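Supplementary Text 2. Reproducibility record for the structural model of the 331-residue chain.

All settings were left at their defaults, and a single model was retained for analysis rather than an ensemble. We include the record here because the model underlies the residue-level annotations in Supplementary Table 4.
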Amino acid sequence: MQVLAGDIGGTKTALAIAEVRSGRLSFLRSRNYASAAYPGLEEIARDFLSTERRRPTSAAFGIAGPVRGGRAEVTKLPWSIDERQLARRLGIRRVRLVNDFIAAALGIPRLSRSGSVVLLPGEAESDGPIGVIGAGTGLGQAVLVRVDGDGIAVASEGGHADFGPRDEREDRLVRFVRKGFGRVDRDRLLSGEGLGHIYDFVKFDHRASDAPAVARAFPGNDRAAVISRFALSGRDALCREALSLFVSIYGSEAGNLALQYRATGGVYLAGGIAPKILPALRRRSFRDSFRSKSPLEAFLSRIPVRVVLEPKLGLLGAAATAYRIAIETTR
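Retained model, structure tokens:
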């Protein structure tokens, strides 16, 4: 059986044709698109399917935004998507829209051994909830629970919950960001855009200016990538401090997720940023922020944390969803 899977983000849209045989999933073809270059998902899907001789049996798309009643609004794009309309226009019998971190959570059980790496060791409970959090264009969160042997993913818009500063420096950070945006949510800081805001705050807090090399690198490039590169190479003190603060906040929020869902099955860091800053995540700052939550330090110290390295995690979960709805149709 062949199905269409999609991972729809504010920056990138990834589509793939997956084949499922005896429950095993493999990708036959995939392609990435720049989301903002297209008026909607339909146009991207039509282009992708133009070389297919026959339409896939079903399709599922993980959407970076809330999904209700088969309709979705992409948080950082002017796209409205309706699964019934999409099914009709693409000529695919069954189409399902899910939150992108629902797809990510459903992809976790299908990761290969090399698809993730241990960040913090622990003792995962085989039937415990698994928390998934990921900073990228925005901040996504979800939980995977096991019911009668099946994995059920529960969506969350926790990335848009209020950010809670932990100390005086973070108080100043919130005041700084609030001047430009008003309310400060977690997504405003734990994202590619957020790393830029944190860098701007560090620069302001020290009454400093961009180093000449950093200033030359910013124009025409992704600011978060520039900051990360200079931080990881040790070439700029402001970038190092900004990334260190970002990692500390990331660790704290991952710990919050573990507490909220009692994620004894482990916590997975998904999203595009974590693999790129893995050396920084391995430093003590992430671990201390994740576990330093009195009176539950001992509980959190037993929860393992892994970083997802598999770039097709969302596609894996979307493909699994497409396969499931295809099977339901035949029953």
